[in-house]
Amino acid sequence: MSGVVNSLVNTVLSAPPWLVYLIVALVVFAEDALFVGFVLPGETLAIIGGVTASLGHTSLWWVLVVVILAAVIGDSVGYEIGRLFGPKVMGHKIFDRRRKRLESAQEFLRRRGGSAVFLGRWTAFFRAVMPALAGLSGMRYRVFLPWNALGGIAWGGAAVTAGYLAGESYHRVEKWLGTGAAVVVGLIVLVAIAVWAIRRHRSEAA
To answer: Cβ atoms within 10 A of the Cβ of 205, count?
Structure first.
């Protein structure tokens, strides 16, 4: 692997592989369990984890395992929080500006049942609140868990693979056009991911 690729990855992440795994796991977990998705969507970290794997900085399989387990466990913790403290948590002022979206999520859960847990994983806001709403609604855990696991596997696999393929494009450009062009493309990919995440977060907040 070229020194330029190593330099790019280390500059962006400034962390050894084990710390990359830990950061990705914590953010993905916290998004579902503690509503951190309002600030930093776990999807962004899952994609960046895939990028680092494609550049050889981390292992693709470990990134996949870390993201999927963190997603499933985070949802399970969010479910328990909703089951035990649902009304108090959902009445918190953090949801005041998102009350209509919260009501929309509750209605979606009433209409779709378990499948709403799977479908909700593909939207940042729903991903953050759906587990707690499922626990609050009285949904049985044996119903919640299969949909949670299916959603975690599908979403985690898709996000990490997207990042991996984006990083792979770096190698192709480096081979065809040279290292200089590859560095530019690599930076564009990282900036594009950041802009996409910010815009998505703002649109959902609005």
So the answer is: 12
Crossing angle, helix 124-137 and helix 17-34, to 10 degrees? 50
Name the nearest CA neighbour of 76 among 26, 134, 16: 134
- pLDDT digit string, tens, across residues 5-60: 444 445 445 678 888 898 889 888 988 777 665 556 677 778 888 888 887 888 99
Structure tokens at 161: 């693979």
**Residue 158 to residue 75: CA distance in whole angstroms:** 17
Q: For tokens 């900036």, name the residue.
A: 191
Place of tokens 């895939």: 50
State both tokens at 167: 């990083």
0.90 cut: is pTM over it?
no
Strands (E), 57-128: none
CA 31 to chain centroid, in Å, comes to 7
**Largest interatomic CA distance in the chain:** 57
Q: Are 159 and 67 in contact (CB under 8 A)?
A: yes
pLDDT, one tens digit per residue, over 28-43 is 898 877 766 555 667 7
Query: Residue 102 CB: number of other CB atoms within 10 A?
Result: 16
Model confidence over 159-185: pLDDT tens digits? 888 888 877 665 554 454 344 444 545
